[in-house]
Design brief:
heterodimer; A: about 140 residues; alpha+beta; Thiol Ester Dehydrase, Chain A; seven-stranded antiparallel beta sheet; 1 helix; about 40% strand; B: about 120 residues; six-stranded antiparallel beta sheet
Chain lengths: ~140, ~120
């Protein structure tokens, strides 16, 4: 399968998640194997902790929604509706460095490792200000 | 907003397990998903981190998640039992956790092998 490059800020057209847990604000699909997403953290983000820093679970949700946006994009290209997805597992996750705060922008690179039926396996790397803060593998079912 | 409303209540706690109940009125369920409320998997991870932080009496964060398997969905109102095994490695804690239905240990919802600091 070969797909054209695609870019949108209209995330709700690709995923079913809605506020207060919408964790992607820009999505680019470079090709069938590589995507990129962004999130600029607002001061009312539900994953901000008392310390003022974003919880690591917020970054994992951002990655899950990036993968969901990829799945939604592929489904729309095939003329199908966007559907709900769930995390099946998280593996090989490492967290390091200073967590971001309100105003910072997450940039995530996603590599699609496999997509068989409704199971999608991705490898993700999230950076803030050029520093990688979280990497993981994630399996999604939709 | 979300910060003012608890995702879960702790009903009981001892060295073996923690009994929890998911709060069906939490605002996250309005967005995850509209008309079909399901507890976001990442919030289950945060719940376990908060429980272990209570055990250890200081705020902890994940430094690594070796495996986190979501076995079955968690819905608002569910009663759950968390079994956790905490090993202190000096500069980090190894956490092995199982989340299951409160009354049925065979109804496993999540299996976790992680490290916290």
């Amino acid at each position: 399968m070969s797909i054209p490059a695609y870019k949108t800020n209209d995330i709700t057209s690709l995923i079913p998640q809605r506020p207060p847990i919408l964790m992607v604000d820009g999505f680019t699909c470079e090709n069938e194997q590589n995507c990129q997403s962004t999130l600029t953290i607002s001061s009312d983000n539900m994953f901000l902790e008392e310390s003022g820093l974003l919880a690591e679970e917020g970054i994992l949700e951002h990655i899950a929604q990036t993968a969901a946006a990829y799945v939604g994009h592929i489904r729309k290209l095939a003329g199908e509706d966007v559907n709900m997805g769930y995390i099946g597992d998280i593996k090989r996750c490492t967290v390091s460095g200073l967590m971001p705060a309100a105003g910072d922008t997450l940039i995530t690179h996603l590599t699609i490792m496999s997509q068989v039926g409704n199971i999608t396996l991705v490898s993700a790397q999230t950076a803030v200000n050029g520093q990688t803060i979280l990497t993981c593998r994630m399996k999604l079912a939709n | 907003m979300a910060q003012n409303s608890k995702l879960y209540d702790i009903l009981e706690t001892d060295e073996h397990s923690i009994l929890l109940k998911m709060n069906e009125n939490h605002p996250v369920y309005q967005g995850h998903f509209p008309g079909n409320p399901i507890t976001p998997g990442v919030l289950t991870l945060r719940m376990i981190r908060e429980c272990v932080s209570r055990d250890i009496r200081r705020p902890l964060h994940y430094s690594a998640i070796k495996t986190c398997r979501y076995v079955a969905l968690i819905r608002p109102g569910d009663s759950l039992r968390l079994h956790r095994q905490i090993t202190n490695n000096g500069d980090s804690l190894s956490i092995k956790a199982t989340l299951s239905h409160a009354d049925n240990p065979d109804d496993i919802r999540l299996l976790l092998d992680a490290e916290m600091r």
